Structure formats: C-alpha cells, structure tokens
C-alpha cells in the first residue's frame, strides 16, 4: 500500500502554496520602494523549491514573515475565489481605484471656421474692420471690390467726359405696391412688376430702389446729401442703375410715403398698400444724364453694370433727411478710380 502523507503535512503544503501566491500578489499590487529598507527580509520567488533541509515549516514561516513585514496603509488580504468566478480584487486595488483622480478631458479646440460671437457671421459695413477697404478680405466672392477695374461709384468731371447727343431714357412707370425692408445697410423698397426702363435697345424691369447718405457719386467735385439708386434688370440678367441725386429743400411726396412705412429694425419688412408708389414723384423733369460702365457699390461689387446718373437733383426736406440719417449716419462707399473708363455726358 502506498504511503499517504499525514494530514498536517498536506495542510502545510497547501498553506505554503497559498502564501507563495500571496507574496507574489503583494509584490505585484504594492510596488516596492526605490530603496527598500535594509531590514526587509528577502522574499523567495513563488516558483522557488523548498530548501534541501526538507523543513517546510521554515519556508512557511519565512513567507509569512515577509508578507507581514510589508503590511502598511495598504494591507494585502489574500482571498481565494471559488470555482464560480474569478477571485475578487485585493483591498489595495480597491483602495487605488476609490482614490484615483478622475481624468481631465481637454475641451476641443475651437474650429477655424466657427461663427463670431453671438452665432452670426461677420458682416460687411461702411466703417471699421468690415469697412470698404476690407470688403475683399471678408469672402473670396468679394474679390472684385479690390481688384476690379470698373468699380462704382465714381467722381464725374465734365471736363473729361465724352460730350454729345445720347438716346433718351424711356421710363414706363405705373402706380405699384411692394414692401419696404431694412436690410442692415439701407432702406430698400422692393416693387411689384410693371415699371420698366428702355435704353440702348433693351428693356429693363425695375426691381427695387434704395438710398445712400451721403450720395456716393460726386459731380464736378460736388457732393450731395443723398442719392436714390433705381436698380433694373433685363431678360439677359444685365443690370442698369439710375442714380437720382438729392439735396435738402422741399419735401418729397414719394419719400414721405416710404418713410411712413419705414421699418426700424434690421430684417424687418413692412408691406405697402397696392398702387401707393408712383416713381414719377422721384424723377426730375430734366432727365439728361451721365452714363458709364461700372459695378454694384456694395459687395460683391459685381462689374458690368450700366450706370445713368441724372444731372438734375431732386430734394427732400431736412426733416426727411434727418430721419434717414438717424438710422444710417453714413452708408456710402468712397469714389473709385476710373482706370481709363469713358463717361458719356448726354446732352
């Protein structure tokens, strides 16, 4: 019959194995200091064989002493799990998890294309960082504002104009309705259909008219208090603008109607009664003009626009002028270089 080890001997062997595992766990969980104290007894590796003397109790005592000597603020308690699942974490691991500082997450860097404060894209204006000298820098499609060679407005000097006969402007105006809008840059009247201009063999529909204070155009070194721009478009998509210069004087009936329905906030639109607007009230009797090729006077400064600046100014009262100036103290682009363009002085 084979010899069976005594129960005490088997128990000691099991305890030795468990202690060896405990020592290995302790060393893995609680990192050793960079300079261990001289009094710390060496710990036998978990895989070390018992000494040749055959005294297992001595090995057990040495392991127990090593474990007890390392017990400090983070004591190690060896817990053996059963077959139903993995062994739980050590108390040291639980303590480290409980006291771990939460990670700080950096806020994402703002996008290079984020909108300006308030959630609105920066908009062009008539002064400051968004003023006329900076329009071309704001958007690629505004490039013509800086590089265009036929820009508006211009200073018209009769001494250098091409003088001679020219075809008359043929206006066909009917009483119209529409709406008045404050677009952030001026007061603009969008008209219903039925108003046309015929010039240079083409008929243009009047889309809208708006105001600038002071007038953008200059004639013979003279400036004007205001100007009304009448914007027309033909079937080919070409634009023609008639400029009506305005000086202080008698009140204007059409301006009175528009001011009566004037919106007071950007983006606000006020409908006009049908038939209220009669463009004849805004045009002078003498319709001789200066003519040249230019551009829009606001971004994107598109060129290829046919301009007719009427020679005879109209008038508005000082109260009418003051009311507009309260909303728009200055909404005029500076005059642009002619760059060799010909200005026709229609006699």
List keywords for this structure.
single chain, 347 residues, alpha+beta, Carbonic Anhydrase II, 2 domains, 13-stranded mixed sheet, two-stranded parallel sheet, 15 strands
Give me the secondary-structure topology.
Elements lengths: L6 H23 L26 H14 L21 H9 L35 H4 L5 H4 L7 E2 L5 E3 L5 E3 L3 E7 L4 E5 L4 E4 L2 E11 L5 E2 L6 E8 L5 E10 L4 H8 L8 E9 L11 E7 L7 E8 L3 E3 L1 H10 L16 E3 L1
Parallel strand pairs: 1-8, 2-15, 10-13, 10-14
Antiparallel strand pairs: 3-6, 4-5, 4-11, 5-7, 6-7, 7-9, 9-10, 12-13, 12-15
Helix pairs in contact: 1-2
Look at the helices and sheets and give the structural class.
alpha+beta
Please provide the ordered H/E string of secondary-structure elements. Answer: HHHHHEEEEEEEEEEHEEEEHE
How many beta-strand segments? 15
Share of residues in helices: 10-25%
Poorly predicted parts: 1-11, 13-53, 70-122
β content, as a range?
Answer: 15-25%
Number of domains: 2
Q: Averaged pLDDT, please?
A: 78
Assign the CATH architecture of the largest domain. Roll
> What is the radius of gyration?
45 Å
Q: Termini, distance in Å?
A: 140 Å
CATH topology type of the largest domain: Carbonic Anhydrase II
**Could you describe the largest sheet, including whether it forms a barrel?**
13 strands, mixed
